[in-house]
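Support request, priority: normal
Reporter: lab tech (M.K.)
Component: structure prediction queue

Hi team, I submitted a job for PhiE125 gp8 family phage protein from Halodurantibacterium flavum yesterday, and the status page still shows it as pending. I've pasted the exact input below so you can check whether something in the sequence is tripping the parser. The sequence length should be 205 residues. Please let me know if I need to resubmit or if it's stuck on your end.
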Amino acid sequence: MMLKELSAVPDAALPVEAFRAHLRLGSGFAAPAAGTGEDALLRAHLRAAIAAVEARTGKVLLSRTFEWKIAEWREVDEQALPLAPVAEVAVIETVDRHGEARMALPHRWRLIEDMHRPRIVAVGYMLPGIPTRGHARVEFLAGFGGWEDVPADLRQAVLMLGAQYHDDRAGEGAMPAAVGALVERWRTVRTFGGAIGGAIRGVGR
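Reply from support: The job had stalled in the queue. We restarted it manually and it finished. Here are the results:
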């Protein structure tokens, strides 16, 4: 299985002003003024915090497009997707060992939206067959939307974790217990044979 981020979160979508305001509220923080060279550092801390929360929960906070390659379906008639929430599945295609791709007709499958376990299901008996030594490629849009669409507890977790990174310039330490408590209810039980969150952390960076 391979998971790849096709579109990165643009700088403009990051909640820099909300983060700056949060830093002013925290004791011991000296938040930089808007428009200074510190903005790049704030964006870096936000990206690191978002990546950590996504890795912990398996949830994509800010919407972007992913490509997923899988060698075989887990079930012949349905397949859970590796991230949530998923708003749209744009492409499903099967690719043989020579690299020749065949698009799956849209009427042969449909997306079942779910906050924790979105999946594609066959319309009929089974999903398109994957050739021997080939794979399926699924392109999908995942995420809650923009920053204001992210649930409040996850937004707070990002700001708190980003503040820790800002305070500890030496590196990114362990996730604080308070942040862990905020994200706990969003964690997805892993059933894909690997740490999907690690894939989120590693792509598009």
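Residues 11-58+153-202 form one domain. The radius of gyration is 19 Å. Let us know if anything else looks off. Ticket resolved.
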